[in-house]
Amino acid sequence: MALRFLGIWPNTPDDGSPTIWLEETTGDLIIQSWKADEETVRAAQEVGSVPGHSTDVPDHETVIRLPANMLQFIPRPADEPVLRSFSGADEAPLANTISEGRE
Fold it and tell me: How far apart are CA 64 and CA 14, in angstroms?
């Protein structure tokens, strides 16, 4: 497996921080992040996904919370807008963070 490091939570302490890698053969993202709390999982289940698809989380999957400032590390096509990164815990609303170029 050939992994390439893409990014880590800015100003991270020594361990336990959200991190993203790219599996270069498949293009899969490997993500270490915070486990979503029960309230977040329930909210995601209430929203659901595609009609007819179960909202249960199978034993071989988990729900994570990826901080908004980590979106800057997710690869995307060159012409797709990028979400700006944030520097602190008091982050601006996500809806106000779309930019047209890479930063």
Answer: 20
**For the stretch 6-32, what's the b/e string if a residue is b when 16 or more beta carbons lie within 10 angstroms of its beta carbon?**
bbebeeeeeeebbbbbbeeeeeeeeee
Find the mean pLDDT for residues 54-65.
91
- Assess whether pLDDT exceeds 50 at residue 66: yes
pTM of the model: 0.65
Q: How far apart are CA 16 and CA 9, in angstroms?
A: 10
Beta bridge partners of 99: 82
- What does the alpha-carbon distance between residue 46 and residue 27 come to, in Å, rounded to a whole number? 30
